[in-house]
Every structure is written in structure tokens, then in C-alpha cells.
Design a protein that fits this description.
Layout lengths: L4 H15 L3 E8 L2 E8 L15 E2 L4 H14 L21 H6 L2 H6 L17 H8 L19 H14 L3 H10 L23 E3 L6 E3 L10 H4 L2 E2 L1 H12 L13 H9 L2 E2 L9 E2 L4 E5 L2 E9 L4 E7 L4 E7 L5 H14 L24 E5 L2 E8 L2 E7 L2 H7 L4 E8 L4 E4 L9 E6 L8 E4 L2 E4 L3
Antiparallel strand pairs: 1-2, 1-12, 3-6, 4-5, 7-8, 8-9, 9-10, 10-11, 11-12, 13-14, 14-15, 15-16, 16-17, 17-18, 18-19, 19-20
Helix pairs in contact: 1-11, 2-6, 2-7, 5-6
Length: 458
């Protein structure tokens, strides 16, 4: 089935206007056939149109690229997924002796290492990842090694990058170009903002109020420490080239073998459970989330920077990949609407809705009450009138930057004894999901939302 491009373009334009997102680049790879389109403007001030060659920041989708490069090391016998990091990084240490001695690359890829992101200021120089390793000698555990899943936005994949650097004797940026970008024939994909062709680059935008609309972000790019976990920029076409590698047993569209078929099977098949299964998926593979759409396995890799967003969905059973890059948001309801337009046009299953609250549940609310958090995020769960509420306490500077109050209260609607819906508190938000779980001591020990884990503080 072929997509109706004029109809799709018109519908995406409607959605961009509805969500106040300046532009979107969309790519579809279906049975080997590529469809691309771009709608909107790269920058609301210049009004320059976005095209299929426009480069967007991919945020944490970068982690999938880094995982592919790391699996090349595995193919070459230079690393083992289950050997301690100290094998490659002698003297590696964090505050916890067990984690220091036993944490492995698989823990990092799965986000089960539990090491707090306490890497200080490693600077912007070529030794940034070496400095991060040095700086975490006193980093505490958010949870014991392997105890649960808890997303590591920066540190985990920076450690993988440092192993790549030690084994290859080169900078991570150069390694990515030599191992992936050049062999795949990619001309619009880079790992550091200084490499980006500004004439092709989309500008990020923030939306602080419906009345104001999108404004150019004051933050041009993420710090270099984020590199292996968040700094790749690319086009929708070249994001789909990565998808092609994952869908075709390690082979790029140009026929180059990037990783072995065995490594692709390992990436997709090695999984750990995710405490909050509803927003993205119930399991995490090596560099990818694993979703379940009406019984069909879907692999998910997403990313956000300050004003740009990237979404990729892989449906191996249907030999299909969908890429969506934007310079505004993020809004999961926007992504869902675009993906459903694409999927419906292809005659395929659509993205499942979030579950409905279960009004028959009779929960002991005292088991959930408490304060959960980590540096930069505090969640206060309280009971009132037989219902649960969550109050998010934002850092005052972050709240001012986003144009939000520093305390935002949400209702928690139970789906099960451990899973809750969190309806939006304002017009620029979507419903989120929350897991409160691990009742080892009689009360919930962790709060998990947006892939991140927050231990009970009191």
C-alpha cells in the first residue's frame, strides 16, 4: 500500500498548527521503499522552509547509534557484554564497591547500573569522557546494581564511549564517523554541533504558553558530556538508514555490513523489564525500548533536546520503520497522531491507547505516600479524600526557564496496584504514566516515570 502524500502533508500541517510545532520531517521505510516529506519552517523567525535534507537534533536516539558502534567491538572480540568495566577501564570505581567491581556493559546498555549521574563538570574538551570516569569515583547508587531499570540520560553511554575510545585509541566523535557514518554513506549525520552544516540545521523551539506560541530556544545544543547519549544530529532519511541496519540483520542500505546478524539479534533479544510499561513499552533491549502493539513487537528509540525531538518506530514483522523529527514539543500525543496517520495509510496496526483507570481497585493509599526523588527532581505522593496525588517540585531556575510554577499537582488514577495514569495539569501537557512499586518494606520503594527511577527519600 502506498501513502497518499498530499493528504498526509495536509494532515501533518494541521497537527503542527494544533500543537504549535514549527516543523516536522517524516520518513517511512516500508518493504524497502522510502517515503519522505517535510512540513513547516526550520525557524519561526526566519520562516525558512524545512526540507527532507534538514538536519535535526536526535537527543537520546543517539544511544542506539552508540550501541551499534559498541556491538562492532563485540563482533571484533575486543569487549564482552558481560565482563566487568574494569577489564577495559582498569581502576574503574564508584562509591559502591560491588557496583565498582561487577558493573558490565550490558548493565549500561540496559540502564540497570543504578549509578547516579554525579559526573561533575567534565568540560568540553576531547578528554570529556575520560574525565567523567574520573569524576564518578564518589558517585552513589540510585538503586543496587541490577535491582531495577532506571534510565541513565548521560553517564551510562558516556562510559560505553570511553570503552570505545580506549579500545580504538581515538575520540568517540571520530570513532562514530569511522565505524558508522562513513561506511553507511551518511552525509547529514554528525555527533557534535561544531560539525553541523548550519545552513541545513533546524532551530529548536520552546512552547511556554499557547498565547505566546513557539519561541527560539536559548540553548543551542547540549553539553559535550551528553554526546554518546544525546548529541547526534541527522535527517529523517539517515535515521531510517540506521533503522535499515536493525531491520536487515546489520546491513546498511548501501549494502555495507555494519554489525553481524548475531549482534542485531542480541541487541533486540536481550531484555529487562521496565517498571512503567505503558508509555513506551514493557521491556528494554540493548539501546532500544521494546513495545507491544496489539501483539506485534515494536522497537522504540526516542530523543529530546532543548527544543527538538526525534522518534523512531521499528516494526520488524511488517518490515517497516517510521521516523519523525521535529523542532518543537515534545508532545507524545502529536507523535501518536502522526504515527497513526502513517500506519493507517499503510493498512497496519495503530499505536495502542493508554489503559483506562480501574475504578474498582481498593488500594491502601498509605503504601504509596511519601517523597521520591533524585537531584533535580522531587515527587511528593499524598492521599486526600480517598485519592492519590503527585506534586512535582521543580528547581526554581528550571521552572522559570519553562514558564511553569515550581510546584505542580497531578492526580494519580490507578490502573493496577502499581501503575497509575497522571492526567495533564495544563494545555501543553499530555497524560503521563507512573509506576509505584517494590513493597519490600511494606511501602513503595521506587517511583518510575518517563523511564526514570526515583527512590523513596522519606
Amino acid at each position: 500500500m502506498t501513502l497518499d502524500r498530499p493528504r498526509l502533508r495536509a494532515r501533518v500541517a494541521e497537527l503542527l498548527a494544533e500543537y504549535a510545532i514549527p516543523s516536522a520531517a517524516i520518513g517511512v521505510l516500508h518493504d524497502g521503499e522510502l517515503t519522505e516529506l517535510a512540513v513547516g519552517v526550520k525557524n519561526v523567525e526566519t520562516r525558512e522552509p524545512a526540507t527532507t535534507d534538514t538536519v535535526y537534533q536526535c537527543g537520546s536516539m543517539t544511544k542506539t547509534w552508540t550501541a551499534l558502534a559498541f556491538m562492532q567491538l563485540v563482533d571484533e572480540g575486543k569487549v564482552d557484554l558481560d565482563e566487568p568495566l574494569r577489564t577495559c577501564l582498569p581502576g574503574f570505581a564508584v562509591a559502591d564497591p560491588e557496583a565498582s567491581a561487577k558493573v558490565t556493559p550490558r548493565h549500561l546498555l540496559h540502564h540497570t547500573n543504578g549509578i547516579e549521574e554525579a559526573y561533575g563538570d567534565p568540560g568540553e574538551d576531547d578528554d570529556v569522557y575520560a574525565r567523567m570516569v574520573e569524576n564518578i569515583a564518589d558517585a552513589p547508587q540510585v538503586f543496587p546494581l541490577g535491582r531495577t531499570h532506571g534510565y541513565s540520560a548521560v553517564l551510562g553511554y558516556a562510559l560505553l564511549a570511553r570503552i570505545l575510545e580506549v579500545r580504538d585509541g581515538a575520540r568517540w566523535d571520530d570513532i562514530m564517523r569511522r565505524r558508522l557514518f562513513d561506511p553507511m554513506g551518511l552525509t547529514g549525520t554528525n555527533s557534535w554541533h561544531e560539525q553541523v552544516d548550519e545552513a541545513r540545521a533546524a532551530t529548536g523551539h520552546l512552547i511556554r504558553s499557547p498565547e505566546e506560541g513557539p519561541v527560539v530556544t536559548p540553548v543551542r545544543c547540549l553539553p559535550r558530556a551528553f554526546g554518546p547519549g544525546g548529541n547526534i544530529t541527522s535527517t529523517s532519511r539517515e535515521v531510517l538508514a540506521m533503522a535499515h541496519v536493525l531491520l536487515n540483520e546489520g546491513t546498511a542500505p548501501n549494502g555495507e555490513r555494519i554489525v553481524s546478524a548475531e549482534s542485531i539479534r542480541e541487541m533486540l533479544g536481550s531484555r529487562v523489564s521496565v517498571p512503567d510499561p505503558y508509555m513506551f513499552g514493557p521491556a528494554w533491549a540493548l539501546g532500544l525500548i521494546v513495545g507491544d502493539w496489539h501483539g506485534e513487537t515494536v522497537y522504540v528509540t526516542d530523543g529530546s533536546t532543548v527544543g527538538q525531538n526525534a522518534r523512531l518506530r521499528l516494526l520488524p514483522d511488517s518490515n517497516t520503520a517510521l521516523a519523525l523529527l521535529t523542532n518543537g514539543g515534545p508532545r507524545e500525543s502529536f507523535s501518536r497522531a502522526v504515527f497513526n496517520e502513517l500506519l493507517t495509510g499503510l493498512g497496519m496496526i495503530t499505536v495502542p491507547d493508554l489503559p483506562a483507570p480501574d475504578t474498582t481497585l481498593n488500594l491502601d493509599l498509605s503504601r504509596y505516600e511519601g517523597v521520591y526523588g533524585r537531584p533535580g527532581a522531587v515527587y511528593e505522593v499524598s492521599a486526600e479524600g480517598g485519592k492519590l496525588y503527585l506534586t512535582l517540585a521543580l528547581d526554581p531556575m528550571q521552572a522559570a526557564f519553562l514558564g511553569k510554577p515550581d510546584r505542580i499537582r497531578y492526580a494519580l488514577l490507578p490502573v493496577s496496584e502499581t501503575h497509575f495514569l497522571m492526567p495533564p495539569a495544563g494545555p501543553l501537557e499530555d497524560t503521563q504514566t507512573v509506576a509505584l512499586y517494590d513493597f519490600t518494606n511494606g511501602t513503595a520503594q521506587y517511583l518510575h516515570t518517563n523511564c526514570r527511577v526515583n527512590p523513596r527519600q522519606r
